[in-house]
Write the structure tokens for this entry.
Amino acid sequence: MNYSNKNIIFILFSLLILGSCQNQAELTMERGIQYYEWNQFDNAILEFNKVVKMFQYDNNLDYEQIRLLSQAHHNLSISYSKKEWNDDAKNHAKKAFDLIPSNENRTVLELIDEKIK
């Protein structure tokens, strides 16, 4: 096998690995959402935390990865709030808002602040 074929195989393999990581994160998020809908908040929290851990040490996230990470923090904040763990809920709501300062993330952060007061 010549050098250029090895490079092509390496690039294709790398893309496959990166793509499967994204798919794995999305599947994990969907599992977490399903647990949440079934009122299994502990399991939902575990799944959302897995998503956060998947991106924890990557400083070069693209927009879709940042969106997914923000959504994981958002979902964690709501799940923790359901368990009345308001400090944890606020922490994750702030992280979600810092990643993507949307109206939805801001509203959740404000609601949790009101709940704490």
Remarks:
- Helices lie at 3-37, 41-55, 63-82, 86-99, 103-116.
- The radius of gyration is 17 Å.
- DSSP finds five helices and no strands in the chain.
- The CA atoms of residues 73 and 92 lie 5 Å apart.
